[in-house]
């Protein structure tokens, strides 16, 4: 809990329009992480921001997170999943960065802070900017409407894909059709194709990851100078990953290098200089996904069941960053995870014992490589994450690449396992569940189910009970016990015994005995904290200001009549559950008809892993 307080202090939480306006009045430079409620702020950069704050120690530098869903001024950012950082100098937008590019973010913070201090100290001119996310753009809205009316382009999830661009120089010289023929002759399948002239803003956004390079402005001007051909390509036969195959076909970005080493490549044949090198190719699978969303928002990968008309289900999978990579490349790997569209509901850093490694990898104990795996896994803390998203198991395996490091480097050099391989270490530094069944088993190993006690109070029962129960289940909780009862005075006093010395104790007891309440046992990973977060602050007025979507903010009226109650710790939860329901263990569930049923308890071979 201490770590969370520290993080909250680092970044002010802005969750409504009033707080947003107060934040804009802050003197100095404020860097705002704009996020959607469903995916949360960009956790991958928190340690970087803390490092910058500690190193600079400047009172004029501020960090904040802002929930776009509940702030009117950020309406245009809703529905976007890419990390976005807005830089404000005394209320004016001075810079925008999209994507969790840590080096660029650090450089921009230092530069923009220096500019802001110059304005404040010497009265210099503050250069405000505009961002498409906040500015009404009729053309953009018209395109959006057209896109909504178009049918989605869906291809099987088993195919890999990349984005290709025939650049303005090749189009201007009449070479586009010739290049397209060569692409098809080489065995690439064109899944989508359109001719398009990028605006300067679009070119700047598309090449944002190159903003730190000296040629960035020239690149933006060139790419918006005339029409390009945008294609989505699928893999050639016999290739697991199209990205390296396409990059091999187009050749090196440097024209002289392409002509010298790959004279048959597209760039060697059609490029005229390094900037005008005829064609573009995504650097890796993650960039291909981002570029695909940029140009073809209705293009998406689908499973076989989706092609029969079913929605691709949201899945969960386990990701492990092993000790060496967790120590050296943690933030960069996390940034890649978020860029790939995953949400991370839970993450935990744990130091495993040898016995725990044997239990987790029980299927591999007899393999020749197991001693090396055992040594690697016990070398330091492992970062375990639950990743959630459509087709998460397959998507994460795709991004990871082959489990054999040598094969990964040869066949998929842009995959995560190849990119984050450790020198002189033969084993992969990243793990992903092989199947949905393995995912649930492995998630349960690192994030064992927890129970908590929840109470829907008498004042909320009649009007809001069903809404609250619906939200509880929608929040991923399992209701393993449910009891509707009127508490006697003796039960209420015992239930709230830890508050006996408080001046409001008698009033609280009388209120809780006033009518029926619903008492529930909720089960979920991290259930205690998750339920407390869903409830919100004890005082509904405070909840409305800081957590407007919480249950207490929406259904409570004051501290006494605050709609719901929850245990404050796992120990207190166990005590209250025993008091209300007796010795029920952890293996009860509520059937659809409301009766309590018994089910098999958690597999005893998996141990609860505590944080070190």
From TrEMBL:
Keyword Cell cycle appears in the UniProt entry: yes
Region (Disordered): 591-612
GO BP term, pick one: GTP biosynthetic process
Location relative to the cell: Cell projection, Lamellipodium; Cell projection, Ruffle; Cytoplasm; Nucleus
CDD domains cross-referenced by the UniProt entry: NDPk_TX, TRX_NDPK
Pfam families documented for this protein: NDK, Thioredoxin
GO cellular component term, pick one: lamellipodium
Entry GO MF terms: metal ion binding; nucleoside diphosphate kinase activity
Keywords of the record: Cell cycle, Cytoplasm, Metal-binding, Nucleus
Catalytic center residues: 280, 431, 565
InterPro entries, A to Z: NDK-like_dom (IPR034907), NDK-like_dom_sf (IPR036850), Nucleoside_diP_kinase (IPR001564), Thioredoxin-like_sf (IPR036249), Thioredoxin_CS (IPR017937), Thioredoxin_domain (IPR013766), TXND_domain-containing (IPR051766)
Biased composition, class Basic and acidic residues, residue ranges: 591-601
Record bears the keyword Phosphoprotein: no
Family under the similarity heading: Belongs to the NDK family.
Function statement: Major role in the synthesis of nucleoside triphosphates other than ATP.
Matching PANTHER family: NME/NM23 FAMILY MEMBER 8, THIOREDOXIN DOMAIN-CONTAINING PROTEIN 6 ISOFORM X1
Name of the protein this chain belongs to: Nucleoside diphosphate kinase B
